[in-house]
Amino acid sequence: MSTSKNIQFSPEALELCQKIMRRYPQGKHKSAILPILHIAQAESNGWLSPEVMDYVAGILRIQPIEVYEVASFYSMFNLKPVGKCVIEVCRTGPCWLLGAEDLVRFIEKKLGIKEGQTTPDGMFTLKTVECLASCGTAPMMQIGETYHENLTFDKCGKILDEYKGKGELVTHWKKEKVKNHSDIKQ
Amino acid sequence: MGRQLLINDLDKPGIQTLEGYKACGGYTALDKALKMKPEEIVEEVKKSGLRGRGGAGFPTGMKWSFIAKPPGVPRYLVCNADESEPGTFKDRFLMEKKPHILIEGMIISSFALGANVSYIYIRGEMMYVFHILEKAIQEAYDAGLLGKNIMGSGFDHDLYVHCGAGAYICGEETALIESLEGKRGNPRIKPPFPAVKGVWDCPTVVNNVETIAAVVPITTMGGDEYAKIGIGKSTGTKLISASGHINKPGVYEIELGVPVEEFIYSDKYCGGIRNGKKMKAVVAGGSSVPVLPTDLILKTAKGEPRLMTYESLADGGFQTGTMLGSGGFIVMDEDTSIVKNLWNFTRFYHHESCGQCSPCREGTGWMEKILHKFLDGHASMSDIDLLWDIQGKIEGKTICPLGEAAAWPVAAAIRHFRSEFEEYVKSGKNMKDVKHYYRLNNLETA
Ligand SMILES: Cc1cc2nc3c(=O)[nH]c(=O)nc-3n(C[C@H](O)[C@H](O)[C@H](O)COP(=O)(O)O)c2cc1C
Ligand code: FES
After folding, report:
1. In this structure, are residues B270 and B247 in contact, taking their beta carbons and an 8 Å threshold?
2. Could you tell me the residue range of the domain that residue A65 belongs to?
3. Best mutation site among A86, A96, A111, A174 for testing chain B: the one with the most B CBs within 10 Å?
4. Residue A70 shares a structural domain with residue A115
């Protein structure tokens, strides 16, 4: 267990966590762990350090180990630092039939990194992931919440350039949707 | 194209919104349902012959009638929107394009089951759809379609979306329940079944997105009318996710019973094989079901045309048949390497095994390694038999059916394409020499 005293989520994020915890029956608020860990990634540069997980344990009023064992099970949680944009290329059957392997090599070449690595400027991390239920528009990749589909090298290259141009942190649960969560029902 | 009951009206303006959905007759089924008795709705669903659209095809009405009703204990409906079976993308399509049909189905189904709270468990990767659903649910609350005393019926219902975080296994219903409780997605030993002891130990029904959406047209038209669509025990319409080497990939709503040949070659559906190639094989129901070579997917071993129904696709058992599964229809052209495709799927199952049961945890890893030997040109003939042996030792020996899902594709590939494995062994072929997938472009010139 580590110290989480340096971690502080924004008031909006904390409010959102409380809102989500109320969706489950009395005493069953541990159920909120997955949504809250997504919010935690948005609040913590896209990854979950032990300190952040301890902080989440505090919000949920559970033991840190309960957070670690859950966070380590699910592939969307990054337990090591990542770039501002995590590129998640689908590598499963149907995408692979339509060139996913080549797409990964193209991105590796363009960014000068291998799968699993982060660019030296901290902009991109390249990950391969399993079928994202977008096989009809293969090959595809996900960046944050956005599905980029029917990719060609050209299209993929331009998309990456755009993200680089913006230079912003992109997480699955978007940071702005953590800040403004009026769409989330009590 | 036959009748469309789920993905009709997608071209209507604002169909994503409550207003647009209502303009197309949305929520009239709910109005009708709330004036019925819950048992009557269950009866209509039974009569409709609706079978679970998540993959197993279990009769929905029967599943509903199993739910335990101990007094004073809440019951839950949980919608399985984890859609992660490779080749399947219909639920995402439906939720994104027409979120209110799922919400309407959730309320009707919950009313039938006597559940005052329900959850939609959506996989975390579909975060943008999570937000679409949140918005639609908010609209439904604002219009009095959710919350207390819905449409003056006295029925109270709260519906929440819950997001996962990346784990294929969480599509298995007891793993999904564990995950919803905030734990790792380890499937539970059954019995007890969720209908008796589900989420938070309360009676729970887990149904697929498409199953719950289908309850809406069933309520509107009545079970008997719905059952008139389709053939035999394959009633109604089914969403098919078509992918791979076809001209028109996408989601198609078919009346069950369309001939497979028509589905693949007709311009109404897949539009044939792309680039004028010939078809080699099809995985008809998501990556877990047995792959079939062209002759067996188009015709049964008896020589009858194969139809898109639960029964026809299964005709011949696993010797010569397959399964409708989740309706993930993956088409492979003549250039596809069955061995490498199998390696890809096996790697997937190895990656996604939760690790509880040793036959699955270890067996999937061994199979992946052996398949890699084939691709590297290091395999021997006895490795084919070894693969066969391992898959047979996984099947039926695990807590959940992920074991079978990993074993069946291996068995089917060997059964129908043994010569291709042998070819790899004989020529010591390196995977680089195998024209195993369609190339997007030449990397060097990109
Ligand atoms: C490994 C595994 C993964 C599964 N994934 C899904 C899934 O993503 N979506 C789904 O609806 N059912 C999935 N199922 C089937 C569910 O366990 C369950 O049968 C289904 O949700 C029941 O709903 P239905 O009767 O409406 O089909 C999966 C089963 C297994 C064994
Ligand atoms: S295989 Fe890539 S989205 Fe399904």
Report:
1. yes
2. 4-79
3. A96
4. no
